[in-house]
Design a protein that fits this description.
With 228 residues, the chain is of the alpha/beta class. It folds into two domains: 5-105, 3-Layer(aba) Sandwich (Glutaredoxin); 126-225, no CATH class. Helix content is 54%, strand content 9%. The chain is built from ten helices and four strands, in the order E-H-E-H-E-E-H-H-H-H-H-H-H-H. The chain has helices at 17-34, 51-61, 89-105, 111-121, 134-145, 150-154, 164-179, 182-196, 204-211, 215-225; strands at residues 5-9, 43-48, 71-73, 79-84. Strands 1-2-4-3 form a four-stranded mixed β-sheet. Helix 5 (134-145) crosses helix 7. The longest helix has 18 residues, at 17-34. The N and C termini lie far apart (43 Å). The structure holds zinc ion (ZN). Zinc ion binds next to helix 3 and helix 4.
């Protein structure tokens, strides 16, 4: 079984046929871009027509869950994605679908990297390189404050600790690894391969610094080069 999604919705999914097909493509993209194995489990996707029904459902069944527009929840059984119909539904489904595919394939994913990858894959495929709204934001931030500290991201343990700045910074490191120097991408994929093989992966920052001693300079150069 290759990362299949079973959809349950309280409205007609016909207009969303293309979107659901994208989840299959997303699985292929994760395998190709990150070298992660294909997910070994089904993910159940629960879609609600109204945000009020979505909120009531989650408060009832998952009272501890954080308040978010969409959620991926995995406890003992198969993973579950929850979202409601809105202009952002496509983004929400790709974002939570990325979490589902990662957790269906890997025994663990550090929180910041999990979110950085979900932010990266949540936009339509043609927008991943240059069309994500985080790009202009990180370029502004970089100009004012310099590269965000990857070691600080690695210390985040709870979703509640992540606000817009942490999502942007996590995205920025992922984008750097996937579109920056080839060594950075190699380090990301070998890190994920170690996790998949249950080998102690160490810290990604340590591995990146060993591979790219001028890590911050390379990060800056990557985003300068993308300035248009
Ligand atoms: Zn997320």
């Amino acid at each position: 079984m290759a990362g299949s999604f079973v959809c349950h919705a309280d409205f007609s999914l016909q207009p969303y046929d293309g979107l659901l097909a994208e989840l299959t493509r997303l699985q292929n993209d994760l395998i190709r871009e990150l070298g992660v194995p294909s997910a070994q489990e089904v993910t159940h996707v629960y879609l609600f027509a109204k945000s009020s029904t979505y909120k009531r459902y989650l408060t009832h069944y998952f009272p501890q869950a954080p308040t978010r527009r969409a959620l991926f929840i995995k406890e003992r059984g198969p993973g579950m994605v929850f979202a409601y119909e809105s202009d952002e539904l496509a983004i929400d489904i790709r974002h939570e679908g990325t979490h589902a595919l990662l957790h269906g394939a890997l025994p663990m994913v550090p929180l910041w990297l999990d979110e950085g990858l979900a932010e990266y894959f949540e936009v339509a495929p043609q927008d991943r390189h240059l069309g994500n709204a985080h790009l202009a934001s990180i370029q502004r931030f970089l100009w004012l404050k310099g590269p965000p500290k990857i070691e600080q991201l690695e210390q985040l343990e709870r979703l509640e600790e992540m606000g817009p700045a942490q999502y942007r910074d996590a995205w920025a490191w992922v984008h750097f690894m996937l579109h920056g120097p080839p060594e950075a991408r190699e380090e990301l994929t070998s890190y994920l391969r170690d996790i998949a093989a249950l080998a102690p992966p160490g810290q990604l920052s340590v591995r990146l610094r060993r591979r790219l001693p001028q890590l911050e300079q390379q990060f800056i150069a990557h985003y300068q080069q993308l300035r248009r």
